[in-house]
Write a structure and sequence with these properties.
The protein is of the alpha/beta class and 102 residues long. The protein has one domain. The protein is 28% helix and 26% strand. The protein contains three helices and six strands. A six-stranded mixed β-sheet has the order 3-4-5-2-1-6, with helices on one face. The longest helix has 13 residues. The protein is globular, with a radius of gyration of 12 Å.
Length: 102
C-alpha cells in the first residue's frame, strides 16, 4: 500500500487525480486543501460517508481518503513540528509518503 500526499486536492486537477487514485488503487490518500478555490470532496465524490477524527475528515466507506481543510503551509508546519503526527493523531503508521503531488 502506498501513501500519496496531494496539496490543492479539491481544485480541478487535484480532485480528478484524487478520483483517479480512489478508482484505480487501494492506496491511502492524504488530501490537503483550504477550499479557497475548490469544493469539499463530498460535493464531487459518490461515497459521501464522513468520519471525523481530530482535525481530519476520513471520507468514503473504505477509509482511504483523509482530508484536511487547511492551508498546505500550516499542514507542513504541523507535520514538521511532530515526527509522530500521523501515528499519534490519526493512527496512520508510515514513515514517509510514496508520492507528493503539489
Amino acid at each position: 500500500m502506498k501513501y500519496h500526499l496531494i496539496s490543492g486536492a479539491c481544485g480541478f486537477v487535484g480532485r480528478n487525480f484524487v478520483k483517479h487514485l480512489l478508482k484505480n488503487t487501494k492506496d491511502i490518500i492524504i488530501a490537503v486543501d483550504d477550499l479557497s478555490i475548490g469544493t469539499h470532496p463530498t460535493t464531487w465524490l459518490e461515497d459521501k460517508t464522513v468520519k471525523k477524527l481530530n482535525d481530519v475528515e476520513i471520507i468514503g466507506s473504505d477509509g482511504r481518503l483523509y482530508f484536511w481543510k487547511k492551508d498546505f503551509r500550516v499542514f507542513l508546519n504541523d507535520l514538521l513540528a511532530d515526527p509522530n503526527y500521523f501515528k499519534d493523531g490519526y493512527d496512520l503508521d508510515f514513515t514517509k509518503f510514496n508520492d507528493v503531488f503539489h
